[in-house]
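Sequence in, structure out. Go.
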Amino acid sequence: MLSVLGVVPGLCQQFFVGARVAYGMSAPHSLIGQQKVTVPASGQSLSNVHGNMGVGWQLGIETGLAMSRNFELRFSYEHLFGESQQLEYLDYGGEYLLKEGKAIQGRIIPSVRIKSEAQGLGFWMSSGLIVPLTSESTLRTQMKGVGGNPDHTIEERTLIYRFSPGFRQQLGLSKKIGPAFELDLFLSYDLFRQTAKNSYVQSFQKNGNDAMSQLSVYEQETVFQEDLNDYSNNVALNPNYRTDKAMEDLLYSHDFSVISVGLTLRYRFGDPVE
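Output:
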């Protein structure tokens, strides 16, 4: 009983909780699509589209233990609210297509932090893993006149990613606010890519009317694979493809690597750890 009472106060002195907010900016811009547009001088322009699905706001909470004045173990939950990214754009010869994507992701981030203090400021760096719990993007495609089809269609599709962890490095400054609170200003870099697993149509409109019932299973669902052959359920390779089964297509990945700037407000329980 005495040993338990001796351990618990020590743990209370080391325990902390916090809340954080950050904004992620693309680093680097990766190739995610193409655009083809009408140019008065030359007739047409074809160019690559660069972007990053990890761009957006990150909101999170954290907890952890300070093992000493200079070493901490942290465990965070974070939610990414991605900004819309242009994936494909076509506006040429009477054809119009606009494809956009926006990511939503919940993830846990275990990490270690090393810090030092001088003249009331703390200087620290941390390294951790990004472990996605939920990871998907909403893809919205508008088309009119593509392939000679005069209908105006709008498709919203959910893209599910395969499980794939990433890495995070952070540098920051910390300042104590009173006896228990602490404010962090940090800069972080995420190295993170997500590979497509499967997708399915959430809604489909044609000329302003619901047209989901007009889509076959092949048109509604897609499964992404490492390679395709003559037996794959893909009309480009197999003339005997089946419309009652999901389309099989080559897998691809989206870049989630970002540089983020943010703030963390932390509350420490008990006395400072020596």
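Check: The helical segments are 2-14, 217-220. The chain has one domain: 15-268.
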